[in-house]
Amino acid sequence: MDARSKLIDLAAFLDRVQRAGQEGDFRVKALKEAIGCLDGADPGRAREVLLRFSDLTTEPIERATIQGAVGAVAI
User: Fold this and answer.
1) What is the C-alpha separation between 37 and 45, in angstroms, rounded?
2) pLDDT value at position 61?
3) Chain-centroid distance, C-alpha 66
4) How many structural domains comprise the chain?
């Protein structure tokens, strides 16, 4: 039942995002991609979900444009 409550929380979060007009935010897009990884029989689902929120770049940027980490990159 724990998974059920988490799924309901996720659905409620996406409802709030939609009402706020923030569906185009790159973090929301990454979240939706991660949700898509749950469909299927691949035993590597957890890894695929984690990768959707991971920054795979190896070169540092010269100067940060914002404070804090944001993570998700398109892979």
Assistant:
1) 6
2) 82
3) 19
4) 1
